[in-house]
Amino acid sequence: MYEFKYHRPGTVRQAANLLVKNEDAKLIAGGHTLIPVMKQRLASPPHLVDLSHIEGLNTIEMKGRSLVIGATARHAEVATSAVVGEAIPALANLAGQIGDPAVRHKGTIGGSLANNDPTADYPAAVLALGATIVTNKRRLKAEEFFQGLFSTALEADEIITKVMFPLPKKAAYIKFRNQASRYALVGVFVARRPSDVRVAVTGAGSDGVFRVDAFEEALKKRFSSKVLEGIDVPAEGLNSDIHGSAEYRAHLIGVLTRRAVDAANAKE
Amino acid sequence: MAKISLIVNGNPVTGNVDPRTLLVQFLRENLRLTGTHVGCDTSQCGACVVHLDGKAVKSCTTLAVMADGHEVKTIEGLAADGAPLHPMQEAFREHHGLQCGFCTPGMIMTAIDIVHRKGHELDDHTIREELEGNLCRCTGYQNIVASIAAGAKAMAKSDLA
């Protein structure tokens, strides 16, 4: 790891000021992506700004008809939160599948989203549920937030403060894990929302998380896994690597979406 | 350099560290608490698991400066020198839950964390799921699972948490 200066701000405003003052500074909260990347010397930020001690930034609560999760809420907190379990059980279930128990004690929702790893779990939930990402500057819709591989709409001095999830009628997340890394080889989050149905896929797209329009249209007419039979997802634009070919991933998207729809329907 | 002060195994400690020092390095090299091991150094194997504010974390993926003001417990903090072993340590001894012993400190710290979260009656399936982040290359896990099930029960009757 290369040298850096460590900062521990007490407020989001202080953290933002540190970002403005120190060029190429990076935010850290759980550190479970950033520290490994820094150890490999793939990243060498000269300044680290630690958000994990900012009070109130990890709050999980219902606000009106939205579930609001603070940026530094850890995966274990989301997975075991009674509020999340009541409001969107599929989201608690997703958080409980990230990494392993020790990783879940450190990793945060804000960190996962800001990193936008193409195989991370949270992006699928945020896109399928139509969540809003709130920063110290503005509110971003999921569609505008994710901008391809490891890139987001976040500006250099912008900090995610919370994520607002509108409540779906039904939802489920099914993940096909890479056995070694526990990242999603393919993960599908299906949400039946009051006005539409969304199917978001992580792990498979060479450009990050994406929605499957053909599935969404069919499911909007009738929310049953049966309507998906015969609709194929093209392998074009999907990842191909030692873990699976693009064709295999395309096949998995269909299988996992059907399972997710069945799981969402079973929860009634 | 950064000044840090934290509680390790119940004792206040201070240090002057380069911010890039990992918690595991600080424990092993500054405090000479070498029971916590570095295995893969990539947050996968769990040999470095310690408790940070009572929760199992991978100390190879935590900066020492991030632990400033917090409380750390390592394998050395489970039982006093010369005193009887912690019931989870005793269960690993009794059930032959180790061979080479390299993964054992992390296994035991994870096992105790499982008991804190899931209680004293643990079935094999739960234990195996929860051990996802701890690798052992010797035992084939069978005896580790047996040790944790027995240690979890024994902890119910012990004063050591």
UniProtKB/TrEMBL annotation, chain A:
PROSITE patterns: FAD_PCMH. It comes from Bradyrhizobium manausense. The lineage of its organism: Bacteria, Pseudomonadati, Pseudomonadota, Alphaproteobacteria, Hyphomicrobiales. This is Carbon monoxide dehydrogenase. Coiled coil: none annotated. Pfam families: FAD_binding_5 (PF00941). The keyword Oxidoreductase applies. GO terms for molecular function: FAD binding; oxidoreductase activity. Keywords: FAD, Flavoprotein, Oxidoreductase. Residues 1-170 form the FAD-binding PCMH-type domain.
Automatic annotation (TrEMBL), chain B:
Keywords: 2Fe-2S, Iron, Iron-sulfur, Metal-binding, Oxidoreductase. The keyword rRNA-binding does not apply. PANTHER family: OXIDOREDUCTASE WITH IRON-SULFUR SUBUNIT, OXIDOREDUCTASE, IRON-SULPHUR BINDING SUBUNIT-RELATED-RELATED. InterPro entries: 2Fe-2S-bd, 2Fe-2S-bd_dom_sf, 2Fe-2S_ferredoxin-like_sf, 2Fe-2S_ferredoxin-type, Aldehyde_Oxdr_Iron-Sulfur, Beta-grasp_dom_sf. Residues 2-78 form the 2Fe-2S ferredoxin-type domain. GO terms for molecular function: 2 iron, 2 sulfur cluster binding; metal ion binding; oxidoreductase activity, acting on the aldehyde or oxo group of donors. It comes from Bradyrhizobium manausense. This is Carbon monoxide dehydrogenase. It holds the Pfam family Fer2_2. The keyword Oxidoreductase applies.
